[in-house]
Amino acid sequence: MAPNPRVAKAFRAMREIGIPEEKTKPVLKNLLKIYEKNWELIEVENYRALADAIFDSEEAEASEQKKSHDSAEAEAAEQKKKLEQAEIMKAIEEETQIPEEPERPLKRLRLRHQDGSSCTTSNPNSHGTPLKKPKLEIDDLPIAIPRSQARAMNASGEPVSVSPQPQTRNKGKQPVLADTPPDVVNGAGSDSGLRLRHLKDKGKEPMPPQTRSQGLRSTSDRPSHGVRIKEPKPKQTVLPLIKPKDEPLTDDAPPLPAPLSVTRPEPMTNGDSSAENRSRDSNVLTSSNETSGHELAAVPTESTATIDIASSSKGEIKISLTCNSTQNPNLSATNVDTLLKRMEDRCLRSYKALDSNFSVKELMKNMCDSLVEPEPEPEPKPDSTPPTEELKKVAANTSDDGPLLTTNGSVGNEAEGACENGFQDTEPQSLVGVPNNEVTADDTRSLHDVNDIAKGQESVIISLVNEVNTECPPAFHYIPGNAVFQSAYVNFSLARIGDDNCCSTCFGDCLTSATACACALQSGGEYAYTKEGLVKEELIDECIKMNRDPQKHCLFYCKECPLERSKNEEIIESCKGHSVRSFIKECWLKCGCNKQCGNRVVQRGIQRKLQVFMTPGGKGWGLRTLEDLPKGAFVCEYVGEVLTNAELYERVSKSSNKDEHAYPVLLDADWGAESELKDEEALCLDATYYGNVARFINHRCFDSNLVEIPVEVENPDHHYYHLAFFTTRKVKALEELTWDYGIDFDDEEHPVKAFKCRCGSRFCRNIKRSNRSRKRRFT
Ligand SMILES: C[S@@+](CC[C@H](N)C(=O)[O-])C[C@H]1O[C@@H](n2cnc3c(N)ncnc32)[C@H](O)[C@@H]1O
């Protein structure tokens, strides 16, 4: 890409006053960000602002240096850090040797790692060195050459070369040796029994999940920075309370607050807090509404509506809905029951998300629940009794009264200080969400079905429970599979799938065949799955290791990194590196095998009993299993909108609420192998607005019980693939499912702050950081 003439001019101007380009570059980049690319502000007075900023930064640097430890101390600290890290890795290794697992011989992989060998030969400091085409070696490849290698050969126009490194991880495709520039392909083979092909990702990156963080490494040596965007704290005020459907009620109710002081046909007795009186008041209202025609509500078919909330010093709350229907010729009076029935019919027709048990009364009650939600929500102590019991007591003493209909055509509802009975004392119901005063078509996404958050789109039911607080799930559309947002190039055409991309001559179940099918060859020559449908242990172990310590693995460097380009087109930073990953190739449409073929697992979708639940430890919603899971079991795929990275950046920068964004996932494969990747090929997944259960999986540092593996199903290239979660060990029913997002909690440069980690792992990277009294503060 030709350098921006304005950038070149700025460099020249600074050179003229003795400032070298290396100094100018970062400052200019920063200024462009601050001035929102308003060059005039930078160019004015012969780049005065730029020169000043450079001098300022030099001064700051000098004073920083003064403060800092001398280099010997720093080096010693670095050494110590490395030792610490090695110890931690060792401890994790030991810790994750699960006792209940049957004894098995050590895998070659493990032995090699224990030897301390590594395939990392990349030199992160040498970014920007002249590029060379990848030189790969095909040494002991199984039967066929993996497609990516063939492509590397084609791309380079020269035969692959051999860089054997015994005792390193990627034997088939070794990383280049020390004299090889880091921007050269560093290897992609596996020395595990499976010898699976690898995809590359960004290593321990703040942008999850392929972008693994550096763990305990310093910021300076980490590979590329992705986009990590904080997951929204689920909206608390706009959705009603969700309760586990089967919670029993108890009798001992706490004292109830005074009843409401609202507009009523008959005066209400204040100060009487008994359930009996509340019930009576409500009955009075109902009968009054039925008998006094002039007090009945006018319900226009089209009206504008406003919702008012009033509260009194006694803790009473009134919600009133005022409909402006004066201009409407269809204005007619009706009674509460008719109104409710009409509304229910309307909701069932318009918002198909609701089930037949939907009740407007419940909706109104839940509106009350939302009103009296504690703010800010207290964080339950891990061992504290969930407030459920208390809520049940309240529910038992709260009458099941309907909404109030006021004389001015307003609909009100009683909201006691602890009106938490929501769905609790009724039959199992769907959750109904009311996102705003004015419900728009798009807001229907917040109408979740608590009995099945997937709304029948998965082959299993996925329920949602909150036994901890009154928080409601975030508003999003549940989708069972990825969907392209706009510009992403995801081409599934059959014509693109060549004979080497499918096993068209196979029949029945590929796994029963003595030789590996063409699909398996693409994954390194062996099937990734066992006959039981589990990922083979060797592969799982390899992926776990890769995720825990990506620096030990190979890094690829792009000539012009699309990720850096999407961050800033003016000055494109050098590629921070993409690590090499194992992937699975499943059989698909053009294959001759049948649908039950054992090499089709992820494409069958979720098969395990899962549940979305409110975690007690302050992490918000989480995902858990309701059944015991063996090691290597497929749990779910990370599903979201497929976006280009440029689209993601735009989306995030335009978002008024950056916290609203779920963690986007970088689909970073083969980037380094291609000399230049088009914007529409540099893809990521964003589950903020459209996603599946995976959007609820919380992070756990290092020893998470899930690991992500890229799975190629329909697309023959590696720009788009499925990101599937498999268990890293046996997981017991009701255990929370976690995944290491790869966050680098030390990343002070990242535009988005990391959350305060509450993973509870003894290897928590956030705790480490805090103990070292690092500068950065977390919210
Ligand atoms: C992909 S979402 C997971 C679902 C989320 N808990 C929810 O309620 O929707 C990621 C967000 O969950 C929270 N989270 C995940 N793991 C966490 C952890 N270990 N500690 C604290 N918060 C965590 C953070 O707010 C993060 O931004």
Automatic annotation (TrEMBL):
Residues 608-742 form the SET domain. It is found in: Chromosome; Nucleus. GO terms for cellular component: chromosome; nucleus. Keywords: Chromosome, Metal-binding, Nucleus, Transferase, Zinc. Residues 63-93, 219-234 have a biased composition (Basic and acidic residues). Residues 116-128, 282-291, 396-411 have a biased composition (Polar residues). InterPro entries: Pre-SET_dom, SET_dom, SET_dom_sf, SUVR4/1/2, WIYLD_dom_sf, WIYLD_domain. It comes from the Eukaryota. The keyword Zinc applies. One of its GO terms (molecular function) is zinc ion binding. Residues 58-301, 395-433 are annotated as: Disordered. Residues 509-605 form the Pre-SET domain. It holds the Pfam family WIYLD. Its main location: nucleus. PANTHER family: INACTIVE HISTONE-LYSINE N-METHYLTRANSFERASE SUVR1-RELATED. This is Uncharacterized protein. The lineage of its organism: Eukaryota, Viridiplantae, Streptophyta, Embryophyta, Tracheophyta.
